Amino acid sequence: MAKDMTLLWGSGSAPCWRVMIALEEKNLQGYNHKLLSFDKMEHKSQEVLDINPRGQLPSFKHGDNIVNESYAACFYLESQFKSQGNRLIPDSPAEQALTYQRMFEGLALYEKVGGVIYYEYYVPEEERHDSALKRNKEALVTELKLWEGYLKKLGSGSFVAGKTFSLADVTVFPTVAVLFQFGLSAERYPVLGEYYALLKDRPSIKASWPPHWLENTKGQDTLKEI
């Protein structure tokens, strides 16, 4: 089955990582994959555009089925391979509701993180303003406090939507990992730090860890003052 799958991906991209974790969790190792460089603009290559007209990564194909949006790909993999590997959507209505809620709130977290760490990448120099970056940082702090509260309410050792690893963790953990890779303080955000420590050695996550992070274990300090 996995041999019918192709994933074009970029190292350190949270959306790409979501799909890779889902593939690992569903025991779909052995899929075709190709690491592309954002710096070399390979995500705009014809190879990508043939699958994904938006010229974005991930670009994912299973047989003739193309599912490029990372959340859609994760839902697709869980739906098509429900009985294989680990179940990622709980049956309980309460747990399922919280899983979906945290998954989609995770998009807000990802957006707030990007507004700070990728500010200079996306905003042309002549359009940058210290006041705008300050607002983005304040919005990120507010968002981080929200997630600290969510995890604290669930109790020590919890996953993001309860006591069971779920699709919410598949989609949210990569963003949390990006936070700490870019210097977020685990002392300032201890509950998020505990969550990160709980999951970083999970087999599916370890197997799909961004390769360039392994080369730069110190990470960056963009968020050290947040």
From TrEMBL:
The record's Gene Ontology cellular component field reads: mitochondrion
Instruction: Identify a single GO molecular function assigned to this protein.
Output: glutathione transferase activity
Any single GO BP term: L-phenylalanine catabolic process
Tell me where on the tree of life, at the top rank, the source sits. Answer: Eukaryota
Pfam families attached to this UniProt entry: GST_C_3, GST_N_3
* InterPro entries in the cross-refs: Glutathione-S-Trfase_C-like, Glutathione-S-Trfase_C_sf, Glutathione_S-Trfase, Glutathione_S-Trfase_N, GST_C, Thioredoxin-like_sf
Sequence ranges assigned to domain GST C-terminal in this UniProt record: 92-226
Which ranges carry the GST N-terminal domain? 3-85
> Could you tell me what this protein is called?
Glutathione S-transferase rho
- Species assigned in the record: Sparus aurata (Gilthead sea bream)
